[in-house]
Design a protein that fits this description.
Radius of gyration: 16 Å
CATH architecture: Roll
Helix content: 10-25%
Strand content: 25-35%
Structural class: alpha+beta
Number of domains: 1
CATH class: Alpha Beta
Length: about 170
């Protein structure tokens, strides 16, 4: 199982929107590297749901990939914001996955908290120029962010807090 971070503007689609829907397509991604990451996603992979373009930005909760990569039909909608005339049904250019809501963290983990946490040094999110809306997250970083979001004191004894709490393991 791999772990990921996916960014969304909360005014457009927040963790609360996902909670109410239960599951939703992650469509409209128009960055090649982010698209390639989504093509690597497998059903069962875990996702940190990140609120971007807000104050403060940060990780709001967890989701799970429940439908693997498939062509994104929003690329073919001529009236939509995500239309791309280069993408066709025969040769799709853009892909999407479906995610399912798992939980909203009791503690919203801000970007400033992530950057200040020495344990998270090297996490792609903390690197300059890391604006990708979809990015891989190493398991140790993923577990740390989850522990912070659940407001669990993170120690070597509870390193696998995901599995031990039975929520997402």
């Amino acid at each position: 199982m791999q772990t990921w971070l996916m960014k969304s503007e909360p005014e457009v689609f927040s963790i609360e929107h996902l909670r109410k829907k239960g599951h939703a397509p992650w469509d409209g991604v128009r960055n090649y590297q982010a698209r390639n990451f989504m093509r690597d996603m497998k059903a069962g992979d875990l996702v940190l749901f990140y609120h971007s373009s807000c104050q403060p930005p940060g990780v709001a909760g967890l989701a799970r990939v429940t439908k693997e990569s498939h062509p994104d039909p929003t690329a073919w909608d001529k009236k939509g914001d995500s239309f791309d005339p280069r993408s066709t049904r025969e040769k799709p250019l853009w892909f999407m996955v479906e995610v399912t809501y798992l939980e909203t963290f009791p503690h919203f983990v801000t970007l400033d908290e992530v950057k200040a946490d020495g344990y998270l040094a090297g996490m792609r999110l903390t690197q300059k120029g890391s604006r990708l809306s979809v990015q891989p997250v190493g398991r140790k970083h993923f577990d740390r962010v989850v522990a912070l979001g659940r407001d669990v004191r993170f120690t070597s004894e509870n390193r696998h807090v995901l599995d031990n709490r039975g929520k997402t393991g």
